Protein backbone atom coordinates (compact mmCIF):
# COMPACT_ATOMS: atom_id res chain seq x y z
CA UNK A 1 0.00 0.00 0.00
CA UNK A 2 1.33 3.44 -0.91
CA UNK A 3 2.07 5.99 1.79
CA UNK A 4 -0.64 8.23 0.35
CA UNK A 5 -3.32 5.55 0.52
CA UNK A 6 -2.14 4.48 3.96
CA UNK A 7 -2.46 8.09 5.15
CA UNK A 8 -6.05 8.32 3.85
CA UNK A 9 -7.01 4.96 5.35
CA UNK A 10 -5.51 5.99 8.69
CA UNK A 11 -7.57 9.18 8.62
CA UNK A 12 -10.75 7.24 7.85
CA UNK A 13 -10.02 4.86 10.73
CA UNK A 14 -9.59 7.81 13.10
CA UNK A 15 -12.92 9.26 11.98
CA UNK A 16 -14.69 5.97 12.70
CA UNK A 17 -12.95 5.78 16.07
CA UNK A 18 -14.03 9.32 16.99
CA UNK A 19 -17.62 8.60 16.00
CA UNK A 20 -17.60 5.53 18.22
CA UNK A 21 -16.28 7.51 21.18
CA UNK A 22 -18.45 10.59 20.62
CA UNK A 23 -17.12 13.43 18.50
CA UNK A 24 -17.37 16.23 21.03
CA UNK A 25 -15.37 14.71 23.87
CA UNK A 26 -12.79 13.11 21.63
CA UNK A 27 -12.15 16.24 19.58
CA UNK A 28 -11.78 18.31 22.74
CA UNK A 29 -9.31 15.87 24.20
CA UNK A 30 -7.24 15.74 21.03
CA UNK A 31 -7.38 19.49 20.42
CA UNK A 32 -4.43 20.18 22.70
CA UNK A 33 -2.17 18.26 20.29
CA UNK A 34 -2.86 20.73 17.50
CA UNK A 35 -2.60 18.10 14.76
CA UNK A 36 -4.92 16.73 12.12
CA UNK A 37 -6.97 14.85 14.68
CA UNK A 38 -8.85 17.96 15.82
CA UNK A 39 -10.33 18.62 12.39
CA UNK A 40 -11.56 15.19 11.41
CA UNK A 41 -15.18 16.31 11.83
CA UNK A 42 -14.77 19.38 9.59
CA UNK A 43 -16.89 19.78 6.48
CA UNK A 44 -15.37 18.98 3.10
CA UNK A 45 -15.57 22.46 1.54
CA UNK A 46 -13.08 25.30 1.24
CA UNK A 47 -15.22 27.84 3.06
CA UNK A 48 -13.54 27.33 6.42
CA UNK A 49 -15.28 26.86 9.71
CA UNK A 50 -15.13 28.43 13.12
CA UNK A 51 -14.22 25.74 15.61
CA UNK A 52 -15.23 27.85 18.60
CA UNK A 53 -13.45 30.62 20.47
CA UNK A 54 -9.75 30.01 20.74
CA UNK A 55 -9.55 27.16 18.21
CA UNK A 56 -7.83 27.30 14.83
CA UNK A 57 -9.80 27.66 11.59
CA UNK A 58 -9.22 24.93 9.00
CA UNK A 59 -9.74 24.57 5.28
CA UNK A 60 -10.19 21.31 3.39
CA UNK A 61 -8.16 20.36 0.32
CA UNK A 62 -10.74 18.55 -1.80
CA UNK A 63 -7.99 16.72 -3.72
CA UNK A 64 -6.84 14.64 -0.75
CA UNK A 65 -9.23 15.47 2.08
CA UNK A 66 -6.47 17.18 4.07
CA UNK A 67 -7.77 19.59 6.72
CA UNK A 68 -5.16 22.31 6.79
CA UNK A 69 -4.80 25.11 9.32
CA UNK A 70 -5.54 28.49 7.75
CA UNK A 71 -2.26 29.66 9.31
CA UNK A 72 0.77 28.06 7.68
CA UNK A 73 4.22 28.17 9.25
CA UNK A 74 6.72 29.65 6.79
CA UNK A 75 10.30 28.52 7.34
CA UNK A 76 12.26 30.96 5.19
CA UNK A 77 13.48 32.95 8.21
CA UNK A 78 14.14 30.82 11.28
CA UNK A 79 15.50 32.19 14.58
CA UNK A 80 19.28 32.32 14.73
CA UNK A 81 21.70 32.22 17.62
CA UNK A 82 22.48 35.86 16.89
CA UNK A 83 18.83 36.84 17.33
CA UNK A 84 18.39 34.99 20.61
CA UNK A 85 21.81 35.71 22.14
CA UNK A 86 22.49 39.24 20.97
CA UNK A 87 25.51 38.12 18.91
CA UNK A 88 24.23 39.59 15.65
CA UNK A 89 27.02 38.05 13.58
CA UNK A 90 26.05 34.44 14.42
CA UNK A 91 23.59 33.24 11.76
CA UNK A 92 23.52 29.65 12.99
CA UNK A 93 19.93 28.44 13.36
CA UNK A 94 18.91 28.28 17.02
CA UNK A 95 17.49 24.75 17.04
CA UNK A 96 16.07 25.03 20.56
CA UNK A 97 14.15 28.17 19.59
CA UNK A 98 12.86 26.43 16.44
CA UNK A 99 11.75 23.47 18.54
CA UNK A 100 9.88 25.72 20.96
CA UNK A 101 8.09 27.53 18.15
CA UNK A 102 7.12 24.30 16.40
CA UNK A 103 5.83 22.87 19.67
CA UNK A 104 3.72 25.99 20.29
CA UNK A 105 2.40 26.00 16.72
CA UNK A 106 1.33 22.36 16.84
CA UNK A 107 -0.21 22.77 20.28
CA UNK A 108 -2.34 25.64 18.96
CA UNK A 109 -3.57 23.98 15.79
CA UNK A 110 -0.99 24.95 13.15
CA UNK A 111 -0.29 21.87 11.03
CA UNK A 112 1.22 23.15 7.73
CA UNK A 113 4.96 23.82 7.60
CA UNK A 114 6.52 25.28 4.44
CA UNK A 115 10.26 25.06 3.79
CA UNK A 116 12.74 24.75 0.90
CA UNK A 117 16.29 23.59 0.16
CA UNK A 118 17.07 27.26 -0.55
CA UNK A 119 15.93 28.68 2.79
CA UNK A 120 18.27 29.73 5.60
CA UNK A 121 21.35 29.18 3.44
CA UNK A 122 20.31 25.58 2.88
CA UNK A 123 19.68 24.66 6.52
CA UNK A 124 15.92 25.19 6.92
CA UNK A 125 14.86 21.67 5.92
CA UNK A 126 17.30 20.06 8.31
CA UNK A 127 16.23 22.26 11.22
CA UNK A 128 12.55 21.62 10.53
CA UNK A 129 13.20 17.89 10.19
CA UNK A 130 14.71 17.86 13.67
CA UNK A 131 11.85 19.90 15.17
CA UNK A 132 8.95 18.14 13.46
CA UNK A 133 10.23 14.56 13.80
CA UNK A 134 9.78 14.89 17.56
CA UNK A 135 6.02 14.73 16.90
CA UNK A 136 3.78 12.06 15.30
CA UNK A 137 4.15 12.20 11.52
CA UNK A 138 0.39 12.37 10.98
CA UNK A 139 0.08 15.51 13.15
CA UNK A 140 1.53 17.85 10.51
CA UNK A 141 1.85 18.47 6.79
CA UNK A 142 5.27 19.13 5.27
CA UNK A 143 5.52 21.42 2.25
CA UNK A 144 8.85 21.81 0.51
CA UNK A 145 10.06 22.74 -2.94
CA UNK A 146 12.27 21.63 -5.78
CA UNK A 147 14.46 24.73 -5.69
CA UNK A 148 16.69 23.91 -8.66
CA UNK A 149 17.30 27.53 -9.63
CA UNK A 150 21.01 27.24 -10.45
CA UNK A 151 21.67 25.94 -14.00
CA UNK A 152 24.06 23.33 -12.59
CA UNK A 153 21.06 21.72 -10.86
CA UNK A 154 18.86 21.58 -13.96
CA UNK A 155 19.82 18.05 -14.97
CA UNK A 156 17.47 15.24 -14.03
CA UNK A 157 20.18 13.66 -11.88
CA UNK A 158 20.86 16.81 -9.86
CA UNK A 159 17.18 17.66 -9.46
CA UNK A 160 16.32 14.13 -8.31
CA UNK A 161 19.23 14.23 -5.87
CA UNK A 162 17.89 17.52 -4.45
CA UNK A 163 14.46 15.97 -3.91
CA UNK A 164 15.94 12.93 -2.21
CA UNK A 165 18.02 15.15 0.08
CA UNK A 166 14.81 16.91 1.09
CA UNK A 167 13.36 13.59 2.23
CA UNK A 168 16.52 12.86 4.19
CA UNK A 169 16.80 16.27 5.85
CA UNK A 170 13.10 16.37 6.71
CA UNK A 171 13.32 12.87 8.22
CA UNK A 172 10.36 11.57 6.30
CA UNK A 173 9.64 9.13 3.49
CA UNK A 174 6.94 11.26 1.88
CA UNK A 175 6.22 14.94 1.23
CA UNK A 176 2.68 16.17 1.74
CA UNK A 177 2.98 19.25 -0.51
CA UNK A 178 5.74 19.49 -3.11
CA UNK A 179 6.11 22.67 -5.17
CA UNK A 180 7.93 23.54 -8.36
CA UNK A 181 9.68 26.54 -6.85
CA UNK A 182 9.31 30.01 -8.34
CA UNK A 183 7.97 29.17 -11.79
CA UNK A 184 7.95 32.31 -13.90
CA UNK A 185 11.36 33.50 -12.70
CA UNK A 186 13.53 33.47 -15.81
CA UNK A 187 10.56 32.92 -18.12
CA UNK A 188 10.07 29.84 -20.29
CA UNK A 189 13.79 29.23 -20.70
CA UNK A 190 14.20 28.62 -16.98
CA UNK A 191 10.96 26.65 -16.67
CA UNK A 192 11.83 24.32 -19.55
CA UNK A 193 15.40 23.91 -18.31
CA UNK A 194 14.35 23.12 -14.76
CA UNK A 195 11.26 20.94 -15.28
CA UNK A 196 10.32 20.35 -18.91
CA UNK A 197 13.24 19.39 -21.14
CA UNK A 198 14.95 17.24 -18.49
CA UNK A 199 11.91 15.10 -17.63
CA UNK A 200 11.85 16.29 -14.00
CA UNK A 201 8.12 17.06 -14.09
CA UNK A 202 7.45 13.50 -15.26
CA UNK A 203 9.61 12.24 -12.40
CA UNK A 204 7.59 14.26 -9.87
CA UNK A 205 4.34 12.92 -11.31
CA UNK A 206 5.70 9.41 -10.83
CA UNK A 207 6.56 10.17 -7.21
CA UNK A 208 3.02 11.44 -6.69
CA UNK A 209 1.62 8.26 -8.20
CA UNK A 210 3.58 6.09 -5.76
CA UNK A 211 2.68 8.28 -2.75
CA UNK A 212 6.09 9.80 -2.11
CA UNK A 213 4.47 13.12 -3.01
CA UNK A 214 0.88 13.53 -1.82
CA UNK A 215 0.07 16.90 -3.42
CA UNK A 216 1.93 18.39 -6.38
CA UNK A 217 1.82 22.11 -7.09
CA UNK A 218 3.91 25.17 -7.88
CA UNK A 219 4.75 28.61 -6.55
CA UNK A 220 4.55 31.50 -8.98
CA UNK A 221 6.65 34.63 -9.44
CA UNK A 222 7.29 36.74 -12.48
CA UNK A 223 6.28 35.81 -16.02
CA UNK A 224 2.48 35.45 -16.25
CA UNK A 225 2.78 33.45 -19.48
CA UNK A 226 4.46 30.61 -17.59
CA UNK A 227 1.69 30.64 -14.97
CA UNK A 228 -0.94 30.41 -17.71
CA UNK A 229 1.03 27.67 -19.49
CA UNK A 230 0.91 25.49 -16.37
CA UNK A 231 -2.83 26.09 -16.07
CA UNK A 232 -3.26 25.12 -19.73
CA UNK A 233 -1.41 21.89 -18.98
CA UNK A 234 -3.90 21.30 -16.17
CA UNK A 235 -6.85 22.00 -18.51
CA UNK A 236 -5.51 19.57 -21.13
CA UNK A 237 -5.05 16.83 -18.54
CA UNK A 238 -1.27 16.72 -18.94
CA UNK A 239 -0.77 17.31 -15.23
CA UNK A 240 -3.19 17.80 -12.37
CA UNK A 241 -2.16 20.58 -10.01
CA UNK A 242 -3.33 19.83 -6.49
CA UNK A 243 -2.58 23.39 -5.32
CA UNK A 244 -0.68 26.53 -6.27
CA UNK A 245 1.10 29.20 -4.23
CA UNK A 246 0.68 32.88 -5.10
CA UNK A 247 1.58 36.24 -3.58
CA UNK A 248 -1.59 37.74 -2.14
CA UNK A 249 -2.21 40.72 0.13
CA UNK A 250 -4.45 43.79 0.09
CA UNK A 251 -1.98 45.81 -1.97
CA UNK A 252 -1.25 43.11 -4.55
CA UNK A 253 -4.95 42.20 -4.81
CA UNK A 254 -5.74 45.05 -7.21
CA UNK A 255 -2.64 47.27 -7.17
CA UNK A 256 0.21 44.89 -7.99
CA UNK A 257 0.83 46.68 -11.27
CA UNK A 258 1.05 49.97 -9.39
CA UNK A 259 3.93 48.54 -7.37
CA UNK A 260 5.71 47.07 -10.39
CA UNK A 261 4.46 47.08 -13.98
CA UNK A 262 5.57 43.46 -14.47
CA UNK A 263 3.56 42.17 -11.51
CA UNK A 264 0.16 40.52 -11.92
CA UNK A 265 -2.76 41.41 -9.67
CA UNK A 266 -3.48 38.69 -7.11
CA UNK A 267 -7.21 38.95 -7.83
CA UNK A 268 -6.51 37.66 -11.35
CA UNK A 269 -4.21 34.85 -10.21
CA UNK A 270 -6.66 33.75 -7.54
CA UNK A 271 -9.57 33.92 -10.00
CA UNK A 272 -7.79 31.67 -12.50
CA UNK A 273 -7.11 29.10 -9.78
CA UNK A 274 -10.69 29.29 -8.53
CA UNK A 275 -12.08 28.65 -12.04
CA UNK A 276 -10.22 25.35 -11.97
CA UNK A 277 -10.92 24.56 -8.30
CA UNK A 278 -7.19 24.59 -7.54
CA UNK A 279 -6.64 25.44 -3.85
CA UNK A 280 -4.43 28.48 -3.32
CA UNK A 281 -1.65 28.85 -0.76
CA UNK A 282 -0.83 32.47 0.11
CA UNK A 283 2.71 33.80 0.42
CA UNK A 284 3.73 37.35 1.36
CA UNK A 285 0.50 38.28 3.21
CA UNK A 286 2.51 41.09 4.86
CA UNK A 287 4.46 41.98 1.69
CA UNK A 288 7.80 41.29 3.34
CA UNK A 289 6.72 42.97 6.59
CA UNK A 290 5.66 46.24 4.94
CA UNK A 291 2.01 45.69 5.92
CA UNK A 292 2.96 45.11 9.54
CA UNK A 293 4.63 48.55 9.73
CA UNK A 294 2.32 50.80 7.76
CA UNK A 295 2.64 54.61 7.74
CA UNK A 296 1.39 56.26 10.94
CA UNK A 297 -1.73 57.86 9.36
CA UNK A 298 -2.81 54.47 8.00
CA UNK A 299 -2.18 52.76 11.34
CA UNK A 300 -4.29 55.42 13.08
CA UNK A 301 -7.21 54.83 10.72
CA UNK A 302 -6.98 51.09 11.30
CA UNK A 303 -7.13 51.63 15.06
CA UNK A 304 -10.20 53.80 14.61
CA UNK A 305 -11.95 50.93 12.86
CA UNK A 306 -10.80 48.14 15.20
CA UNK A 307 -8.96 49.39 18.24
CA UNK A 308 -7.49 46.04 19.26
CA UNK A 309 -6.25 44.91 15.85
CA UNK A 310 -2.70 45.54 14.66
CA UNK A 311 -1.90 46.31 11.01
CA UNK A 312 -0.63 42.73 10.70
CA UNK A 313 -3.97 41.39 11.92
CA UNK A 314 -5.78 43.37 9.22
CA UNK A 315 -3.45 41.91 6.58
CA UNK A 316 -3.86 38.33 7.78
CA UNK A 317 -7.64 38.61 7.95
CA UNK A 318 -7.63 39.87 4.35
CA UNK A 319 -5.39 37.04 3.13
CA UNK A 320 -7.45 34.32 4.81
CA UNK A 321 -10.92 35.56 3.89
CA UNK A 322 -11.29 34.25 0.28
CA UNK A 323 -12.92 30.83 0.36
CA UNK A 324 -10.44 29.21 -2.03
CA UNK A 325 -7.43 29.89 0.21
CA UNK A 326 -6.06 26.69 1.72
CA UNK A 327 -3.51 28.28 4.05
CA UNK A 328 -1.72 31.59 4.59
CA UNK A 329 2.03 31.36 5.12
CA UNK A 330 3.80 33.53 7.64
CA UNK A 331 7.49 33.58 8.47
CA UNK A 332 7.15 33.76 12.25
CA UNK A 333 10.73 34.22 13.39
CA UNK A 334 9.75 35.48 16.83
CA UNK A 335 7.39 33.78 19.27
CA UNK A 336 5.28 36.92 19.66
CA UNK A 337 4.57 36.91 15.90
CA UNK A 338 3.46 33.29 16.09
CA UNK A 339 1.23 34.02 19.07
CA UNK A 340 -0.44 37.01 17.41
CA UNK A 341 -1.07 35.12 14.18
CA UNK A 342 -2.47 32.12 16.01
CA UNK A 343 -4.86 34.46 17.85
CA UNK A 344 -5.93 36.08 14.56
CA UNK A 345 -6.88 32.73 13.06
CA UNK A 346 -8.36 31.11 16.18
CA UNK A 347 -10.87 31.51 14.70
CA UNK A 348 -10.59 33.63 11.56
CA UNK A 349 -13.12 36.45 11.35
CA UNK A 350 -13.47 37.03 7.59
CA UNK A 351 -13.53 40.62 6.37
CA UNK A 352 -16.94 42.07 5.56
CA UNK A 353 -17.65 44.20 2.50
CA UNK A 354 -17.04 47.50 4.29
CA UNK A 355 -13.69 46.30 5.63
CA UNK A 356 -12.60 45.19 2.16
CA UNK A 357 -13.42 48.64 0.80
CA UNK A 358 -11.55 50.23 3.70
CA UNK A 359 -8.41 48.19 2.98
CA UNK A 360 -8.59 49.11 -0.68
CA UNK A 361 -8.41 52.77 0.35
CA UNK A 362 -5.55 52.02 2.74
CA UNK A 363 -3.67 50.25 -0.05
CA UNK A 364 -3.85 53.36 -2.22
CA UNK A 365 -2.69 55.53 0.66
CA UNK A 366 0.26 53.23 1.39
CA UNK A 367 1.29 53.33 -2.27
CA UNK A 368 1.66 57.10 -2.05
CA UNK A 369 4.84 56.43 -0.04
CA UNK A 370 8.12 55.92 -1.88
CA UNK A 371 8.92 52.55 -0.32
CA UNK A 372 10.66 49.88 -2.39
CA UNK A 373 8.59 46.69 -2.93
CA UNK A 374 11.22 44.35 -1.46
CA UNK A 375 9.81 41.35 0.44
CA UNK A 376 13.14 40.31 2.00
CA UNK A 377 13.05 36.94 0.23
CA UNK A 378 16.84 37.16 -0.25
CA UNK A 379 16.71 35.51 -3.67
CA UNK A 380 19.03 38.32 -4.85
CA UNK A 381 21.70 37.20 -2.40
CA UNK A 382 24.59 36.78 -2.17
CA UNK A 383 25.72 39.89 -4.01
CA UNK A 384 29.14 39.28 -5.63
CA UNK A 385 30.29 42.67 -4.32
CA UNK A 386 29.02 42.18 -0.79
CA UNK A 387 26.01 44.51 -0.79
CA UNK A 388 23.34 43.44 1.70
CA UNK A 389 20.52 44.30 -0.68
CA UNK A 390 17.53 43.35 1.55
CA UNK A 391 19.00 45.15 4.57
CA UNK A 392 19.60 48.36 2.60
CA UNK A 393 16.02 48.30 1.30
CA UNK A 394 14.63 47.45 4.74
CA UNK A 395 16.35 50.44 6.34
CA UNK A 396 15.20 52.80 3.61
CA UNK A 397 11.61 51.55 3.82
CA UNK A 398 11.58 51.85 7.60
CA UNK A 399 12.74 55.44 7.39
CA UNK A 400 10.04 56.22 4.82
CA UNK A 401 7.36 54.74 7.08
CA UNK A 402 8.79 56.56 10.12
CA UNK A 403 8.84 59.84 8.17
CA UNK A 404 12.62 60.04 8.40
CA UNK A 405 13.25 60.71 4.71
CA UNK A 406 13.33 64.39 3.81
CA UNK A 407 15.12 66.41 1.14
CA UNK A 408 13.90 69.81 2.23
CA UNK A 409 16.49 71.45 4.50
CA UNK A 410 13.88 74.03 5.48
CA UNK A 411 11.80 71.27 7.05
CA UNK A 412 12.02 71.68 10.87
CA UNK A 413 12.25 67.88 11.05
CA UNK A 414 15.13 67.67 8.55
CA UNK A 415 18.07 67.50 11.01
CA UNK A 416 16.40 64.85 13.17
CA UNK A 417 15.44 62.82 10.09
CA UNK A 418 18.97 63.08 8.67
CA UNK A 419 20.53 61.82 11.91
CA UNK A 420 17.99 59.02 12.25
CA UNK A 421 18.65 57.85 8.69
CA UNK A 422 22.46 57.96 8.83
CA UNK A 423 22.88 56.55 12.34
CA UNK A 424 20.33 53.81 11.70
CA UNK A 425 21.98 52.99 8.36
CA UNK A 426 25.37 52.33 9.93
CA UNK A 427 23.79 50.29 12.71
CA UNK A 428 21.64 48.08 10.49
CA UNK A 429 23.98 47.68 7.49
CA UNK A 430 27.77 47.35 7.90
CA UNK A 431 29.73 49.99 5.96
CA UNK A 432 31.22 47.48 3.52
CA UNK A 433 27.74 46.15 2.67
CA UNK A 434 25.99 49.44 1.96
CA UNK A 435 24.57 50.74 -1.33
CA UNK A 436 27.77 52.51 -2.38
CA UNK A 437 29.37 49.08 -2.95
CA UNK A 438 26.98 48.34 -5.82
CA UNK A 439 28.66 48.55 -9.24
CA UNK A 440 25.43 47.86 -11.19
CA UNK A 441 26.65 44.50 -12.48
CA UNK A 442 23.03 43.33 -12.79
CA UNK A 443 23.68 39.87 -11.35
CA UNK A 444 20.69 40.29 -9.00
CA UNK A 445 18.12 41.39 -11.57
CA UNK A 446 16.99 38.01 -12.88
CA UNK A 447 16.59 36.63 -9.35
CA UNK A 448 14.17 39.22 -7.95
CA UNK A 449 10.55 37.94 -7.86
CA UNK A 450 9.32 41.54 -7.55
CA UNK A 451 11.36 42.55 -10.63
CA UNK A 452 12.87 45.51 -8.77
CA UNK A 453 15.52 47.43 -10.69
CA UNK A 454 17.96 46.81 -7.85
CA UNK A 455 21.00 48.68 -9.29
CA UNK A 456 18.84 51.76 -9.97
CA UNK A 457 17.40 51.68 -6.46
CA UNK A 458 20.87 51.24 -4.94
CA UNK A 459 22.07 54.28 -6.89
CA UNK A 460 19.05 56.27 -5.68
CA UNK A 461 19.62 55.35 -2.04
CA UNK A 462 23.34 55.98 -2.23
CA UNK A 463 22.73 59.37 -3.81
CA UNK A 464 20.39 60.24 -0.95
CA UNK A 465 22.94 59.07 1.64
CA UNK A 466 25.66 61.21 0.07
CA UNK A 467 23.26 64.17 0.01
CA UNK A 468 22.63 63.73 3.74
CA UNK A 469 26.34 63.48 4.49
CA UNK A 470 27.16 66.55 2.42
CA UNK A 471 24.45 68.58 4.14
CA UNK A 472 26.27 68.01 7.44
CA UNK A 473 29.38 69.62 5.99
CA UNK A 474 27.72 72.58 4.28
Query: What general outline do the C-alpha atoms trace?
Result: globular
Give the number of DSSP strands: 10
Oligomer: single chain
Helix content: 40-55%
Work out the radius of gyration: 23 Å
Low-confidence stretches: 7-52
How does this model look, in words?
The chain is of the alpha/beta class. It is built from 18 helices and ten strands. About 10% of the residues have low confidence.
Topology:
Blueprint: H1 3-21, H2 23-31, E1 58-61, E2 66-69, E3 71-74, H3 81-85, H4 95-107, E4 112-114, H5 124-132, E5 141-146, H6 156-169, E6 175-183, H7 187-196, H8 200-209, E7 213-220, H9 224-235, E8 243-247, H10 252-259, H11 266-275, E9 280-283, H12 296-305, H13 311-320, E10 325-331, H14 335-344, H15 353-366, H16 389-401, H17 414-428, H18 454-473
Parallel strand pairs: 3-4, 3-10, 4-5, 5-6, 6-7, 7-8, 8-9, 9-10
Antiparallel strand pairs: 1-2
Helix pairs in contact: 1-2, 4-5, 16-17
In summary, what is this structure?
By secondary structure, this protein is of the alpha/beta class. The protein is 45% helix and 11% strand.
Keywords:
474 residues; alpha/beta; 8-stranded parallel barrel; two-stranded antiparallel sheet; 45% helix; 11% strand; globular
